[in-house]
TrEMBL record:
Protein name: Sodium/solute symporter
Cell compartment(s), UniProt: Cell membrane
Annotated InterPro entries: Na/Glc_symporter_sf, Na/solute_symporter, Sodium:Solute_Symporter
Organism the protein comes from: Rubrobacter tropicus
GO cellular component: plasma membrane
PANTHER family listed in its UniProt record: CATION_ACETATE SYMPORTER ACTP (PTHR48086:SF6), SODIUM/PROLINE SYMPORTER-RELATED (PTHR48086)
Amino acid sequence: MSTTDITAFAFFILIIAITLAITYWAAKRNTDTSHHYVAGGEITSWQNGLAISGDYLSAASFLGIAGAIALEGFSGFYLSIGFLVAFLVVLLLVAEPLRNLGKYTVGDVLTARFNARGVRSASALNTLAISMFYMIAQLIGAGALISLLLPISFNLAVIIVGVLMTVYVVAGGMVATTWIQITKAVLLILGSIGLSIAVLAQFGFNPVALFAAVESEVGREAIVPAPPGGLVPGLDTISLNIALVLGTAGLPHILIRFLTVPDAKAARRSIIVATWVIGGFYLLTPILGYGATLLVGRDTIAQQDPGGNLAAPLLAEALGGPIFLAFISAVAFATIVAVVAGLVIAASSAFAHDFYTNVIRHGEASEQEQFKAARYTSAGIAITAIILALLLQGANVAFLVALAFAVAASANVPVILLLIFWKGFNTAGAIAGMLTGLISSVGLVVLSPTILGDAAIFPLTSPAIVSVPLGFLACYLGTKLGGKSAEREMREGRQTSYDEIYVRANTGISNIEQEIRESAPETGQRTS
């Protein structure tokens, strides 16, 4: 084993020790269902903002975008723009209503209006599908990446990451997951800033000089990319950005973060913190990518990994030697284990809380039974993901990630938006929208060039430009053709009054009549 490997192992062991210490501390506070699912709603706005940043800045962001810029030039930066704009959608449309309507899961948000087990079941199915696609992609990527950074096999790397995420979630629940995300976010930001400073130091701390050097050595196309070559590539670019922008507002492991804070005000502040952190990080990615282009070389990067995922670690080695390489590699490792832990929480809460507690047990499971179900389900989901990742070792990771974002954008976003903004929306429309979004996005990806290659029936690699409108259309047609009107459902007690939902989504008042009764005596005393 080389000195570099020993140094890398030392940093990896240090990261694992820190995260296990956090889990041990969190396990003492993970004593009931509320703390397991949403940390008891005790996370502050800045803590949640950093945790959201940690959830969102996955290995795809840290390693993938830097590598894409290094190999493809500025066109790789478009992905950063899509990721960042997505948070404006979350801030303006989703964060506050979600916090005010939800309890533990996305299913709780939807059933705040629709009193139907079908709605909760469809929501749980979507959450499981999105989380599992994303989790398998992360685990496969983790296995491939860690086996490149350390002298261990793909299978062993996947098992190590899988065991760690299981321990984090089962023992520490959302408390551990949140603080591990915060730790990882801080390490990732510090590592990226340190690497960027080291790059800029080579060019007199002048980013313009860096870009000029890239233009001089690689060509102008690396700085000013050519427009998409034809109708299909152009539509594919638009479709991919629709998936990135809307998919973020539908990712369950991001959405449940808004349930970990005490109120809507903290939810808004947390998304503002996350937007600044994530925006600042993405502004560093061109420096990292172009730095790797000049200081490592495109041929060397592509030789190590054709996808460019090792551009940032190779840049660290070129600038800081084995120690900096080991630190950046350990940060990448922490990034992966933290993200998959958040995905396990989202998937297990959908199964244990939505399916087991509210569909199978009709909401009559005791607190202790719910807590046990949450932990057992977390272990089951994690083990299932590990097995699938080992079986799908050669699967296309980009396909799985694209699928997760496309399903989130097509199946969750139309229903969440219409729940808040359409008075006539009904149960049939909600179920039809969720199932149509899920089936159409998965089906179109299966028929796309990603799976069928030259024999593809659907020409685009990203289906969102078609599947998102289909999700909205199914919500509308299901509402109009599916039977009972919203007014009739409200009279029969199958749907909560839209006016009550609208006020609750915007104010957080859960029972308007009770609030009025409780405030009446005080008002009377003040009046008299």
